[in-house]
Amino acid sequence: MHKHENCNCNECPHHVECGGENIDKVKLFENKMITEEEAYYVSELFKAISDLTRVRILFSLLAGDMCVCDITELVGVSQSAVSHQLRVLKQAGLVKYRREGKTIYYSIADDHVSSILAMGLEHISE
Amino acid sequence: MHKHENCNCNECPHHVECGGENIDKVKLFENKMITEEEAYYVSELFKAISDLTRVRILFSLLAGDMCVCDITELVGVSQSAVSHQLRVLKQAGLVKYRREGKTIYYSIADDHVSSILAMGLEHISE
DNA sequence: ATAACACATGAATAAGTGTTCATATGTTAT
DNA sequence: ATAACATATGAACACTTATTCATGTGTTAT
After folding, report:
1. Of A1, B27, B77, B123, which has the maximum CB count within 10 A?
2. Is B67 in the same domain as B43?
């Protein structure tokens, strides 16, 4: 870390003293640090649960498989909006689907997803 | 549910047949359904973990308390950006902080947050 | 009091996101 | 084949959001 003036630029970190005491712990942890790629996937995962409509869809599906029209009715937005959001949830691996004739049934992808949802609900209820 | 033509409007749900078989389960579940308010808080919670920078900040803090300048160095974005995102995390109740002289130390708010982060990381590692 | 430091914040801008509207796709019944 | 149904999708628009830049606030040392 080099000497500097009071600037906020990125290349010239503007702390000298505080870095001294913690820098060892920092360096130590830098190896175990989550990778950029992992962090990205984690953020994408939670991004899929960060929208009101998608959350309502997911909690609806906790009751069991459900077709798009039922979800639409439960959530109370347009069928188109539900379809768009189901695609996001599908791409995030949070839901899966099966076709039965004209109807397509969506469901929670696995128990892991249920757990995450449960933790979220639990967390806000404190 | 009333008779309808082939329209996509919200007031005129366009399914007749598929509603028949599932509508009981739907009605049954409508009572236990997550409230709009709960869903909103859940979505806000996960929204706070839905950004790459914030995820990297949170996983950094899993190593222990850390001052803003160390976080800035670890995450590799500007100090201003880190401060802005720390505010989001603080408002979401995911981190807390304490002041020691000029330095402000941030830390994970509680074990619940750690659990949610761990589940996220675990989920993407499959 | 002044200067340097550690951090926060307001404004502005660019990029991303969710909904609606219109229409397309795939399925079933006639 | 045609019509009706269940769902998906592309384009457009309003809205949100993350960063940067400049500056402000609070603290410590001189």
Report:
1. B123
2. no
Distance CA B13, CA A73 (A): 8
Nearest chain A residue to B73 by CA: give it: A13
Instruction: Look at residue A40 in the predicted model and tell me its pLDDT.
Output: 96
Closest to B65 (Cα-Cα) out of B54, B73, B57: B57
Contact status of B63 with chain A (Cβ, < 8 Å): yes
CA distance B38 to B87: 22
B29 with B76, same domain: the answer is no
For A4-8, B44-48, B96-100, B115-119, which range has the lowest pLDDT when averaged over its residues?
A4-8
B97 at A interface, C-beta within 8 A: no
CATH code of the domain covering residue A96: 1.10.10.10
Show the domain range for A17: 8-48
Across all strands, nucleotide nearest B72 (CA–C1')? C7
CA–C1' B108–D23 (A): 29
Name the band, by pLDDT with cuts 50, 70 and 90, for residue A126.
confident
Determine if strand C comes within 7 Å of the CB of B104: yes
The answer to whether the beta carbons of residues A98 and A104 sit under 8 Å apart is yes
